[in-house]
Specification:
Number of domains of chain A: 2
Number of helices of chain A: 10
Strand order of the largest sheet of chain A: 1-2-6-3-9-10-11-12
CATH class of the largest domain in chain A: Alpha Beta
Helix content of chain A: 25-40%
Oligomer: homodimer
CATH superfamily of the largest domain in chain A: Alpha/Beta hydrolase fold, catalytic domain
Radius of gyration of chain A: 20 Å
């Protein structure tokens, strides 16, 4: 039991199966799908206290608490979701789904394609954030939630929150758009592309049919994670975490992991390659690349934001260079231009893009105030 | 003939073989080695006009002019080296060697180890910038050059120029330290490490013995180059070069190269993987990681710079995020602290780290003035 950190404690995932077809943005129909999710706290009688939490690229539905059989590692936002925490489980009913296309239980590339009876693998349709929003709307319907008190997320999850306020304006009261950008830059896409190339050029990838061949493109996944990880940390946080510290006292003049940052990255890559699905990773990076709400409005973000009714909080972190504060401000400025209810807070933090995962004091206060206002 | 761009025209590489052993920083002896180099312009009678040009990570001795049999692509600094150019071949005798450990003719991992009669491959010793400086000093001796009018280079080449002023203070009148840092940050090392992992985890790498097995770790080299390339460009230059432009008019919902930046990176990776040696790439990144003149002085860079006699120009570029202006200023500030002759110019340029390769007007003027002063 891990209740001493005021965690929500032991949690269990739920699952729901939707039988109807979902029309995707690519034009394809998904013939029914399963969605895995967790909930924390209690839904009140008028169902007005529901908060949707959206995960990022490699996240999943396990956002808070612990699983009974693996008491060690809590959910990815455990430090922010719990009794009296930033997202207070004593006040709110928090819903945290695994995104469509994921690899942790929700229908995705690892699932069986009902049309063929075989694993989807590389044939799983390429998705968009809007597809996720639509699938999550079905989950809201299923749970009887007409309107979210808030939709909130960091990074890709922040884009998801923004998209909710665009796609279902009257179903979102507040949207928390954290460490996000209105669309990826060419550099962001470039990093994603190198990660994809690492995976697809791994001989074990087998054009995406690795499961059928009993193989796992671990080398590619490992590299993809290492590349991603560099962009999650700031140069400053790397400096304070590792500096140029050597594992041994002196230079080895060889190619084993020598600086501490090297063994850290290798370890991150190893763990990830054991647990994440390669086709899902490809899919998630593509969802990121495709996100661009202004695309259908001639790049006019102000016009794109017209439908929004929600009160929006845009949060950025000073040392985030993946989606820097200036990228977040593009969102804020367009919201101001569109005369929307928006506030923007930039949090001082040395932790880079990953800052959104950590309970920095001001960050926690701002989230609490926003949700409670 | 390509003389219309005031190029130096057709050039030919030279080669020299040193028979004596070279003691390396790792403690090993290199039993003789060959060094390939090019020269442009004429050495004057008192041998006082020699300029040593130092190449970066993936560069080589072909810095200016054209080869007769491949008239298309000039040397990597052709826009800066030539008649009346920034590094004026009418005034200076320019020497441009391929670094030890390289893969373009100078002894390196592709060479035969005289001790074993077999290709060095992964057994080529891990080098340092100081080893290069020492080997280039032998080249200077051979050419009869007691004192360089200037030693100059960008990126790793800039570190090389700095090291010359430290190792042989009385043999360097001026050092041009361009787009460099006093040592790599943890983030810099991290990028190098991912590139190395891409190469060493390629099944064709064969623990470095790929040549003996008739294989080439092209996938790994390709990824390494793509990763490197992202760090050479600024977010701004990527934006102006590619933006989020699609190759076709609309999203493909597939995994072929879709955004222009993707096909650009793939192309860069492909070309590089055809021409560069994997063991050399590993070696060069390690040389970069190891560079740290303050290491033996308890991280006191001011003290480390004490021996310097040369006049030093430190040049940085506004959008360089690989070795940002603030990293270059660390060099300058320590030189000021050590009461050395130093000037620092920050050039406004949108081209990121690669700026040092392009003849931006102010950059050219500053270089001319520095060399001619």
């Amino acid at each position: 039991m891990k209740n001493n950190d005021s965690s929500i404690g032991i949690v269990k995932p739920n699952s729901v199966k939707f039988e109807n077809s979902l029309l995707l943005e690519c034009g394809k129909q998904l013939k029914g799908f399963e969605m895995v999710y967790e909930t924390y706290g209690e839904l009140n009688t008028d169902k007005s206290n529901a908060v949707l939490v959206c995960h990022a690229l490699s996240g999943n539905h396990h956002a808070a608490g612990y699983y009974e059989d693996s008491g060690e590692k809590p959910g990815w936002w455990n430090s922010l979701i719990g009794p009296n925490k930033a997202i207070n489980t004593n006040k709110y009913f928090i819903v945290s789904p695994n995104n469509l296309g994921g690899c942790h239980g929700t229908t995705g590339p690892k699932s069986i394609n009902p049309k063929t009876g075989r694993i989807y693998g590389p044939h799983f349709p390429v998705l968009t954030v809007r597809d996720w929003t639509n699938s999550q709307a079905l989950l809201a319907d299923y749970l009887g939630i007409t309107t979210w008190h808030a939709v909130i997320g960091g990074s890709l999850g922040g884009m998801q929150a923004l998209d909710w306020s665009l796609a279902y304006p009257d179903r979102v009261k507040k949207a928390g758009v954290i460490a996000a950008a209105p669309k990826l830059s060419a550099q962001n896409i470039a990093f994603n592309e190198v990660a994809r190339q690492a995976i697809t050029s791994d001989p074990d990838f087998q054009e995406g049919n690795y499961m059928e061949h009993g193989r796992v493109p671990k080398r590619g996944l490992r590299l993809a994670r290492m590349i991603g990880h560099i962009t999650y940390l700031s140069d400053e946080s790397m400096k304070s975490k590792f500096g140029r510290e050597l594992k041994e006292d002196k230079l080895s003049f060889g190619f084993n992991a020598e600086f501490q940052v090297e063994s850290y990255l290798r370890h991150q890559g190893d763990v990830f390659s054991e647990t994440f699905d390669a086709n899902t990773y490809l899919l998630m990076t593509k969802v990121l690349d495709y996100f661009d709400p202004a695309d259908k409005f001639d790049d006019n973000l102000v016009e794109a934001f017209n439908p929004i009714l929600a009160q929006i909080l845009v949060l950025s972190f000073s040392t985030d260079w993946r989606f820097s504060p200036s990228r977040s401000r593009e969102i804020t400025n367009a919201l101001i231009g569109a005369k929307k209810k928006v506030s923007h807070i930039e949090i001082e933090s040395s932790l880079g893009h990953d800052s959104f995962l950590f309970p920095e004091e001001r960050y926690v206060e701002v989230l609490k105030a926003f949700l409670g206002s």
